[in-house]
Amino acid sequence: GAVVSQHPSRVICKSGTSVKIECRSLDFQATTMFWYRQFPKQSLMLMATSNEGSKATYEQGVEKDKFLINHASLTLSTLTVTSAHPEDSSFYICSLREGAGNTEAFFGQGTRLTVV
Amino acid sequence: AQSVTQLGSHVSVSEGALVLLRCNYSSSVPPYLFWYVQYPNQGLQLLLKYTTGATLVKGINGFEAEFKKSETSFHLTKPSAHMSDAAEYFCAVRVQGGNKLVFGAGTILRVKS
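^ inputs. structure came back:
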């Protein structure tokens, strides 16, 4: 399957600081990118969807000014958690998809964010 | 809107026994259905998917699932469990032509030796 690289795998930051998470497709062009959040013992919750070159579409309840998503190219998307608080501590996973139709989505390895 | 229900948040089987993880979905339009596996602190890996055609789908690691429209189910099975199958499994649905994957709550599979 396609390779998706998500970095960093773990990050610890202080309250009030910002953290950037990168998601790269290494061998295909990702026309659509998704960011998910997963709390302990829970399922993945979609935060936002972005298409290359356009603004991300956020799910209800997700603050777009807090979770900044940039889909600058067909191989790179970033999620920036701004002014992080302890309640933002979670596992964040990106997912990339090439084209439309029944093409599958490929997932990054996830980023464990801990805000102290 | 689509939704996915996975019956049983935890399933425990003995090594060599049949694995059955249940998934029921709700969708007003024909769905695409997926099963993913997640190991601790890792992303998701696709096990198998149903889009169109044959309703019995074979995936990696000996897993298979059958799409039953009349029962709105897509249960995951494996004839003989291995210790390495211990992980969390997610069923997901996406409408045809749509972008969004909707996940079930997940089922943690434990394999006893």
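The mean pLDDT of chain B is 93. The two ends of chain B are 41 Å apart (CA to CA).
thumbs up if we can close this ticket
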